[in-house]
Amino acid sequence: CALPILEGLVQEVRLLHGRPIEEVEIEEETSHAAADIIFRTLFSIPIEDALAAQVFHEFRAYQRTQPILNLAAFVPLPRWLPRFHRPGTRAAALRIRALITELTERRMAEIRAGTAPDDLATKIMTTRAPETGETFSTQEMVDQVAIFFLAGHETSASALAWAFYLVATHPDWQERLAEEAQVLGEVPAFSDIARLRLSRDVFRETLRLYPPVPMMVRETSCPERFRDRALRTGSQVVLSPWHQHRHERLWENPHGFDPARWGTKNGRQCQREAYMPFSAGPRVCTGAGFAMVEGVLMLSLILRDLRLQPVEGRVPEPVAFLTVRARDGIHLRVDKR
To answer: Is the backbone of residue 253 left (phi > 0), alpha (psi -120 to 50) or beta?
Structure first.
């Protein structure tokens, strides 16, 4: 998947370069960039493709209708009972599934004709289960694409937007990242990622302060005891990366932006024991590696050529939809270096 990721990143940076210097609402830009990268990786098509653009806009509307936690997750109801969705959520979900179904059927036809590109969608559709020898059905493939797009687009867009805000408000770190990024060529090689250590630490620190998924629900698989409370098997538990990443008994300077912490004893220990922007254990996000490549490269490519500054009087207020977003957007001034 390295090539489409890199192609998408370079294209998005060029689009920003071509814009007049102005105040930019950066969340809109990162949403567009993350969606473009996902579509290039999955289906080898840019966001400008008509179907891709429709899916993108429907997902944007969908995530704004979603609460941080669905109440139905805590109630063991039969599947046929309603799940307390907000008005419009189900309709948006049906429109998204119809669009992804069209994309999937188009790719299946290309696979049968022998004209399909060798991308992630083709690999998923043609890989057979080792136990049964079966490939995904159309509806199973729609599920895979929908999950991949929602998890890989919305979360990356959130993290990137907050990363740009943090470096804009910490110009010393911004300049260090811009200097580090000079090792990148016009089209970076995948091997360059290992050389972007400061960018990796800044992106990692962004995920600590603004984890895209601030809360998640898990179900206990055995009896547990938290403090003085006994939990039976099958209990619903809310985990909060937002609170754990800022826990004053765990982290040094928990509310401060300090990318250098990852080289300290406390930072290394907390990374092992208290850091879970991608969840942890058997349910860890399968796209974690993808996100770290995308975030680190995008951060470096943008700061290599552009300078970001906060807009006076526009301090973003974080709120939780499906991911952590700013209530009125994140507004930054973008200048060419």
So the answer is: left
